[in-house]
Amino acid sequence: MDTQARIQEIVSSHPVVLFMKGNAQFPQCGFSGNAVNILRTCGVEKLHTVNVLEDAEIRQGIKEFANWPTIPQLYINGEFIGGSDIMTEMFQSGELQKLVQG
Question: Could you point out which of 19, 29, 59, 83 has its C-alpha 20 to 30 Å from the C-alpha of 39?
Fold first, then answer.
């Protein structure tokens, strides 16, 4: 299975997916840590994380998948939402809470 197909499978198989550096228990960058904290605050219990530091193909492939150059990247119900900055803005406006609860 090629990398893009692997990513599509991951995104399609879980309601909330965060491609990040590290994992939810041990984020390895501030932006990834911020993303996890926002999702926890929104009440996300079943967060599926993918540590891009463990797989170079996924690390590069995810940037191409969404045509988005940075990590973390959030997907909800298969849809690309954005990175840490967009998550922060959406959280502050209440929009992210509605998305994860919908």
Answer: 59
Give CA torsion, residues 47, 65, 5, 17, to 10 deg.
Answer: 0
Q: How far apart are CA 7 and CA 2, in angstroms?
A: 9
Give the predicted TM-score (pTM) of the model.
0.96
Domains of the chain: 3-101 (3.40.30.10)
Alpha-carbon separation of residue 44 from 3, 59, 60, 94, 97 (angstroms): 27, 24, 26, 14, 9
What's the pLDDT tens digit per position in 13-41? 999 999 999 999 999 999 999 999 999 99
Q: Which residue has the tokens 């990175």?
A: 83
- Secondary structure class of 50 (helix, strand, coil): strand
- Cβ atoms of residues 49 and 14 within 8 Å: no
